[in-house]
Amino acid sequence: MAGDFGTLKKGQFPTILFDPHADPTTQPFWDAAKEDRLVCQQCSDCGTFRMPPSPFCFNCQSRGYQYTELPGTGAIYSFTVVRHPLHPDLIDCCPYVAGTVELDGTQGAGARMLVNIIDVDPDTVKIGDRVEIVFEHVNDEMSTPRFRPISK
Amino acid sequence: MSIKDRAAIVGVGATPYYKRGQSYPETELSMACSAILMALADAGLTIKDLDGFSIYSNSCDPATVGAELGVPEVRWATTTTSGGGGCVGALGVAAAAIDSGMATTVVTLMTLQQLNKRLGGSAVGGMLGYATMSEGSSPYGGSGVSPSAAFTANNGLLSPGHSFAQIAGRHMHLYGTKREHFAEVCISTRDNAIKRPTALRTEPLTLDEYFNARMINDPLCLFDYTMESDGAVAVITTSTERARDLKQPPVLISAANHGGDGRWGPALFKYFQSPDEYFTSSGHRPVAKRMYEAAGMRPSDVDVALLYDHFSPMVIMQLEDYGFCPIGEGGAFVADGNIRYGTGSIPVNTHGGNLSEAYIIGMTHVREAVEQMRGTAVNQVAGAEVALVTGGPAGLPVSGALLRKDV
């Protein structure tokens, strides 16, 4: 894997995992991603959202869940600007912004997404900036979720 | 029931500290054994006395070390889970083993050689392993891809520094903490290292140099990161009663707690799902509360603080979480000179810390605490009777200990 990152685009971390290794619990997320939809696991007993999908609700310990479609928008909760490439072959994508996004339609903590935030100026991006999800369709199985600023 | 003052640190041993990879041809095993033998000798004990291992972050394999050194009988072999956060928590586990009678003489140690590997998975080949590490595995090495790991594999968040930068950034956002505050942590720590013969970085650090250093990942620059080091440090713990008959003045373990908010979990490296209160913290707040209660002490009782400083902003957040200043005011607190050795209200990392002395995953801080309590530290805090030592933040548990002079 190392050394084979394809053609890099500045600000965009390349897909390095091409297979989501999905199980029945996580598969609905990837199925929806193929259709450019963001769905999130939601406890069917107490309504708490959680991300990534998992067996138990951390709020009420229920195993019951459903997938609920979200608007796919949110706000940057925190982020870092990665300027130093951790692999020499990643020089061309640095600097890139990666961070934590709180999703609209959820309670926030517990359902945040950790993502690459693209199409932003690394020198002006800030916490609280509004963003929307965009999926890169890598292959039949993997659609990599990223966020970008909501176009005004 | 409490372990308060029931056990004491009686011996300390350490190899030289090396820059990453330069300990070759020593090995992690050889350095562990050297440190253990030196710690036993320091205490006036021999390998025949050693019967317990209380370790953390998989520092060594007690089976291998026990066989190598000819330990007659191992009666206790435990590790706190996760990584460096469990460091001083392991002292509490040692004290519990001793107080319960299940062991008499316990070693806690770290041995580290970063020749073919680098902590944090930032080396070539380690990156994918880090990004796709499976449920419950260490951030220091991958072991397959779990269905949940796929959610973070392609996001570019690859190293502990990428995680801690997000905590630091949010602290800046909420409380107005500035890079100047991080700089003060780095500069004051460097000042402490200058006089230390053991320190790897001894040239003075100026504010200009700090701001001219390259950014690794905002808001962290080169100097906000710990060094990468090799070496081993071991300490020997036994009952306080027995300690008083040994070679060195005993350093009593008044409290040593590990744990943290349940939702902190592995969040630091993977999911970041803690409520805001914990996300924007060092993760130590619950441990600090229990530690002070267990020891019957308050922050004002602490004379010197050895705070785990893998990333400079986490020192500021630990100062808040351990009650030296209100939450959110850590930046202003350090800017006012409070952590300076010699003049500050609470001297911090008098040994030079991970930032300037060496990074042996927390054990250098324990060594310094013992030297401070013995009155033999290079940068001795006059009249110091109580030392705070911390491990982490990392994944849960994090840990905090209060060590005191036997007076």
Describe this structure in words.
The complex is a heterodimer of chains A (152) and B (407). Chain A has 152 residues and is mostly beta strands. Helix content of chain A is 5%, strand content 33%. Chain A has one domain (27-149). Chain A has one helix and eight strands. In chain A, strands 6-5-4-7-8 form a five-stranded antiparallel sheet. A three-stranded antiparallel sheet of chain A has the order 2-1-3, covered by helices on one side. Chain A starts with 26 loop residues before the first helix and ends with a strand. With 407 residues, chain B is an alpha+beta fold. Chain B has two domains: 7-115 and 230-405, Peroxisomal Thiolase, Chain A, domain 1; 123-157, no CATH class. In chain B, 32% of the residues lie in helices and 17% in strands. Chain B has helices at residues 28-43, 62-69, 89-99, 126-131, 160-175, 179-194, 207-212, 240-243, 276-279, 285-295, 312-321, 330-335, 353-357, 363-374, and strands at 7-14, 18-19, 52-56, 76-80, 105-112, 215-218, 220-221, 229-239, 251-259, 304-306, 386-391, 398-405. In chain B, strands 1, 2, 3, 4, 5, 8, 9, 10, 11 and 12 form a ten-stranded mixed sheet that branches. The longest helix of chain B has 16 residues, at 28-43. The relative contact order of chain B is 0.19. Residues 134-143 of chain B have low confidence and may be disordered. Chains A and B meet through strand 4, strand 5 and strand 6 of A and helix 4, helix 5 and strand 6 of B. Strand 4 (73-82) of chain A pairs antiparallel with strand 6 of chain B, so a sheet runs across the interface.
